[in-house]
Amino acid sequence: MTRHVLVLGGARSGKTAFAERLALHAGNRPAYLATAEALDAEMRDRVESHKAGRAARFTTIEEPIALSAAILRASADHDVILVDCLTLWITNLLIANEDVAQAVSELVAALVQIKTAKVILVSNEVGLGIVPDNAMARTFRDLAGSAHQRLAEICDDAYFVVAGLPVVLKGEPPDAPTSKIHEA
């Protein structure tokens, strides 16, 4: 049985590196589904650096909005799909005036449908800080938190990464070589 995974953590927590190790250990034909849009020079440099660093290990697919359809297409050719990241995807949906709750429902339906590929979802946990001082930031925080809850419910495994250390929130400790695994 394919086990879908949710990997949460703060900015620069090590969550992507952990998810990459999981993906490379989980399959022979991994895809990296990137949701970032390079809207300025700094972000373009960041995206190019990330792509270069994983080029030999992953097939890169870029999709900022139509995530569910991209995952379904990728599952035909890849045995593991790493999605990085959901909070950028939610941001892209908000900017495009898309219905985030509907898009999350479509993502949940796509994940339930996929039986031949493991999907590893990476996202920033944004609900641990202070309450944002403006309506848009509060809306973003609320939408991300709701998405995380819905996805954690259907994923078999969920991890929270802090300082590069994955903490098991749900499911089994990972098979991939990692730093010491902590159970919540």
From TrEMBL:
Alphabetized, the UniProt keywords read: ATP-binding, Cobalamin biosynthesis, GTP-binding, Kinase, Nucleotide-binding, Nucleotidyltransferase, Transferase
**Is the Transferase keyword given for this protein?**
yes
- Pathway where this protein functions: Cofactor biosynthesis; adenosylcobalamin biosynthesis; adenosylcobalamin from cob(II)yrinate a,c-diamide: step 5/7; Cofactor biosynthesis; adenosylcobalamin biosynthesis; adenosylcobalamin from cob(II)yrinate a,c-diamide: step 6/7
InterPro entries the record matches: CobU/CobP, P-loop_NTPase
Q: Which family does it belong to?
A: Belongs to the CobU/CobP family.
Please describe what this protein does.
Catalyzes ATP-dependent phosphorylation of adenosylcobinamide and addition of GMP to adenosylcobinamide phosphate.
- What protein name does the entry list? Bifunctional adenosylcobalamin biosynthesis protein
Query: What gene is it encoded by?
Result: cobU
